[in-house]
């Protein structure tokens, strides 16, 4: 197992290192645009988030893995209350209530809510060992316990994160043993709900505009963000223009966050993009292999595998946006994009995973 953990750590280190390097590189474009802004400012903030994440992960690792699962509801209720508080009282940005401001830093609670969602679902499915898989215990009840977190995230409004959360629930249902027929029923129900949301005008105008712009771009009307992203990627060739030498990032919005993959493509070319994508594939494969082979606790096994697929899914969505395959979502590139809340929550999730992996024995959740 030691060699696999080392390999897993190498993949994570590659992601983190590329993130730090290209956050600084993308910061050069911000320095050129904003008076008094320094290229290292975002990097410094990201490093602070990294060390906070390491501290929390260290605490998580020293706890028994099964303890995280047993205490999952103690995380669940405060998280739900915190999300509700955010919706009611947090700082509004562009009509969205996702952040709480702490001086020059801001916290996006929904990033941590995804980890809590994984924990609560893993704990639930871990308790089902030996029980018959029914529509209630593999679909309906998981939806009931997920609904407050997903619903409040949607109300913020944060459509992209709520969709990622729904995907997490679906992944955990599949891993937890939900039958195909049950999932088909769920899919049909979700389709009806989506139609209702559209008819009832519950999806915000800016969210519909994003989708409209994307589908218009497929018909030949250029989508500005995606167009610049594709230009950056296509101009990088095999090995890119060189670190810090990118030009398109000066015109590409949030080149340090949502579109950092395009910055990597321009400056490190196909080589850089392949290295990063290989790291994500390797990450989900190795962490899943470790969980399947060494983790005896069913709930723990589900959390570790679910966390791996969550990271891979979010990376796929972000890269898909950069390649023009999906509409812009605001979803970060895990371990790479600038964003303190995202990075801290991911490192914490990794710490919980290591805690579960390193705990030996047959202890099941009671």
UniProtKB/TrEMBL annotation:
Reaction equation(s) it catalyzes: [GlcNAc-(1->4)-Mur2Ac(oyl-L-Ala-gamma-D-Glu-L-Lys-D-Ala-D-Ala)](n)-di-trans,octa-cis-undecaprenyl diphosphate + beta-D-GlcNAc-(1->4)-Mur2Ac(oyl-L-Ala-gamma-D-Glu-L-Lys-D-Ala-D-Ala)-di-trans,octa-cis-undecaprenyl diphosphate = [GlcNAc-(1->4)-Mur2Ac(oyl-L-Ala-gamma-D-Glu-L-Lys-D-Ala-D-Ala)](n+1)-di-trans,octa-cis-undecaprenyl diphosphate + di-trans,octa-cis-undecaprenyl diphosphate + H(+)
EC number(s) per entry: 2.4.99.28
Membrane-spanning residues: 6-26, 47-65, 71-90, 102-123, 135-155, 167-198, 268-290, 302-323, 335-358
Keywords, sorted A to Z: Cell shape, Glycosyltransferase, Membrane, Peptidoglycan synthesis, Transferase, Transmembrane, Transmembrane helix
One GO term describing the cellular component: plasma membrane
InterPro entries registered for this protein in UniProt: Cell_cycle_FtsW-rel_CS, FtsW/RodA
Gene Ontology molecular function: lipid-linked peptidoglycan transporter activity; peptidoglycan glycosyltransferase activity
Name of the featured protein: Probable peptidoglycan glycosyltransferase FtsW
Protein source organism: Kosmotoga pacifica
Lineage of producing organism: Bacteria, Thermotogati, Thermotogota, Thermotogae, Kosmotogales
